[in-house]
Amino acid sequence: xxxxxxxxxxxxxxxxLMSLPNHAKGLTSNEYKAVVDTAYNYFNAMANxxxxxxxKAFDLDFGHVKMITTDKETGKESIxxxxxxxxxxxxxxxxxxTWHGKVLSVDIVDDKMAMVKLDFKTSKSHYxxxxxxxxxxxxxRIINKTFxxx
Length: 150
Prior knowledge:
Layout: H1 3-48, H2 51-57, E1 64-70, E2 77-83, H3 84-88, E3 100-109, E4 113-121, E5 126-136, E6 139-149
Parallel strand pairs: 1-6
Antiparallel strand pairs: 1-2, 3-4, 4-5, 5-6
Helix pairs in contact: 1-2
């Protein structure tokens, strides 16, 4: 192969590869924003006891929360599961504490499923949540929440 052909092929490959990240970012940036907004809707719903925000963030028909619990008498750990409907019912008024939340990571698969890692602190606790979301009927909703508290 001549030097000219190799140079042309290399240039075309380089230009093609350079355009891929920009194109991919453009396609996913709207989904990324919608996923992050859903995570913050959940966070603000808890902090403010806002049931309307919960209904925007949670799939109340299908979603669940899973958490580690420890029996006070035996010290044995188990996993407790609640529906998101039950969980949201615990937050029916604005908290007095100041809450700080930050999305640490977002992983979106085929613009249909997402995993969000959320770090948030109150004056009493520090939580790390993993939120699994599905996009159904063109809306992102949390279908599973697992967390640990420190």
